[in-house]
Amino acid sequence: HFRPLRGRVPGARGGRKRTAGRAGAMEEAPAHNGSSSATGTGAASASSSASSSRPPATPEGMALAYGSLVLMALLPIFFGALRSVSCAKSKNSSEMPETITSRDAARFPIVASCTLLGLYLFFKIFSQEYINLLLSMYFFVLGILALSHTISPMMNRFFPANFPTKQYQLLFTQGSGESKEEIVNYEFDTKDLVCLALSSIVGVWYLLRKHWIANNLFGLAFSLNGVELLHLNNVSTGCILLGGLFIYDVFWVFGTNVMVTVAKSFEAPIKLVFPQDLLEKGLDADNFAMLGLGDIVIPGIFIALLLRFDISLKKNTHTYFYTSFVAYIFGLGLTIFIMHIFKHAQPALLYLVPACIGFPLLVALAKGEVTEMFSYESSAEILPHTPRLTHFPSVSGSPASLADSMQQKLSCPRRRRQQSPSAM
Q1: How far apart are CA 252 and CA 15, in angstroms?
Q2: CA spacing 20 to 30 A to 65: which of 89, 155, 188, 424?
Q3: Which GO terms describe its biological process (predicted)?
């Protein structure tokens, strides 16, 4: 299974045709046992020279494949956004989200471009088989952990009340004495171990067979975890991130052949696939349509941010969340339509970014809430019942002097509130 993907492009007329594979791309491509080539911010699919014996996909098969891809893309966005709300309010340090700042968003396309170029050079210099073997082992471990975290809340409902539960803690520290620093501090129980064992079965299945169902289970888990645990701190950061990746996607797809070369050589569960010949061949189908995970996670974390903004308004309407959700469906449908019109794979972010930003912005303009939208800070929702220390005193000496200084600092907001109520 560790070899370049070869096959006939569905929809191509006669002869042989090569399609581009890229980050954040949506494309038709066949694969052997679900083994496909993918890479980048979002998965990209690729196919090269093909045998003319493969029959083209039927209209029913294509409709089933793309309908299933759209549905699979919507599930992690919807449930990941809901879980991001509880994640933002979690008091468990192991479940705290990673907040993306405007600086992170601005650097992300540059980092992604360097990574893509590095992979291109690696595949040019070293053997593809060994690189893909290493990447498969890497995503094997990540996939098991992501899938275990995804199914854990659902599996807890199936455990009987008398199920024996024991608590465990994985602690890894650096240094000793007062200079000891925690590197890993993960708490889990017996139920988590059961989920980990079930996820390991899927991992072994994927590692041995590269089956498309196992690939999709890992892909859905990666997507849901990404939407849940990656938080944008405000709408401006989301616009910077989506705008930067919009340019990144278009440049690397239409400007160079780097993305094509890497996508044809890269094998990992960072895409969702669905066979277009499922009705004819069943689970052994090998003519796949594909959607990159970047086309799910990147718009998904922006949609999750708008859901948290809806909740902060306390109107119980979720207008911006549903608007952006419908915008995502529109953008993905437009991607599929354009792809079939021009018979060429399309960068989905080219259509998703304007839709996911433009639709909610128009709603905000109509409701007169643009200022509230851009002034909302998602980080303020984290641990809402815990006092947040915004000024760190520089104090040296004994712990008693530090405590006295902290009390003085905490007493200051009361006087400031009386002098300037609007400042808070």
Answers
A1: 27
A2: 155
A3: membrane protein proteolysis; signal peptide processing
Residues in the chain, total = 424
Look-up: residue for tokens 């275990």?
A: 148
Which is nearest to 40 in space by CA: 105, 102, 101, 119?
A: 119
Cβ-proximal residues to 32 (8 Å cutoff; 6+ apart), any chain = 1, 5, 7, 286
Nearest to 147 by CA among 185, 100, 194: 194
Output the six-digit token pair for 147: 């899938």
Two tokens at 27?
């494309």
Identity of the residue numbered 45: S
* pLDDT tens, residue order, the chain (424 aa): 323 333 333 333 333 333 333 344 555 444 443 333 333 344 333 333 333 456 777 888 899 999 999 999 999 999 999 999 988 776 565 567 888 999 999 999 999 999 999 988 988 888 888 888 888 899 999 999 999 999 998 888 888 888 888 888 888 888 887 888 888 777 888 888 999 999 999 999 999 988 999 999 999 999 999 999 999 999 999 999 999 999 998 898 788 888 777 877 778 888 899 999 898 888 888 888 888 899 999 999 999 999 999 999 988 889 999 999 999 999 999 999 998 888 777 788 999 999 999 999 999 999 999 999 999 987 655 434 333 333 444 444 444 444 455 455 444 444 444 444 444 4
Report, in this order, helix, strand and coil percent for the chain, each rounded to 5. Answer: 60, 10, 30
In sequence order, what are the beta bridge partners of 166?
none
The residues assigned a catalytic role are 249, 295
d(CA 417, CA 405): 20
Give the integer Cα–Cα distance in Å for 388 and 261.
48
User: Count of CB atoms within 10 A of residue 11's CB?
Assistant: 16
Please name the residue ranges forming H helices in 126-164.
128-155
69: three-class secondary structure by DSSP: helix
- CA–CA separation, 52 and 192 (whole Å): 49
Q: With contact defined as beta carbons under 8 Å apart, do 287 and 30 qualify?
A: yes
Alpha-carbon distances of 16 from 7, 19, 47, 288, rounded to whole Å: 9, 10, 10, 17
Q: Which two tokens stand for residue 229?
A: 């645990």
- Chain mean position to CA 381: 21
